Amino acid sequence: MLLVLGQPAETCVDYGQVIKIREGGKIVDKIKKVIYGTPNINEIETTDIENMNGICRERQGRLVRDTKCFSKKKPKLINSFEIFHSYWNFMDKLTKTDTPAMLEGLANHQWNWDQFFYFNYAV
Fold it and tell me: How many Å is the maximal CA-CA distance in the chain?
């Protein structure tokens, strides 16, 4: 996205909020609000985020509460998450045949660890 001063920027970010109304510990209603952008009100949900958070905690011991594996330094946590992010998107098949990067058109094959570690970045 190109930002030009004095002109409104088009956004590619849609952000909504779900407010859960509880009675006696049970969810009885949900209020959905548009916070930013133009999200479809019917698509505002927390399930995708909650699912990804669960996968991250499951696959990265550093994100589990009360563990000996916690990161003592922030750069270590960031590096760990970036390796997981690359693995999830380029190496781990989301469907029987494709990785998330293949489904989005960012890769044409499933990567392996050699390709990941020896990838030649264009500078």
Answer: 57
Per this entry, what is the length of the chain?
123
Whole-number Å distance between alpha carbons of 44 and 41: 6
Is residue 1 exposed (0-12), middle (13-18) or buried (19+ Cβ within 10 Å)? exposed
Confidence of residue 29 (pLDDT cuts 50, 70, 90): very high
Burial class of residue 90 in the structure, from the number of CB atoms within 10 Å of its CB (0-12 exposed, 13-18 middle, 19+ buried): buried
Confidence of residue 4 (pLDDT cuts 50, 70, 90): very low
Residue (of 26, 30, 29, 3) closest to 17 by Cα position? 30
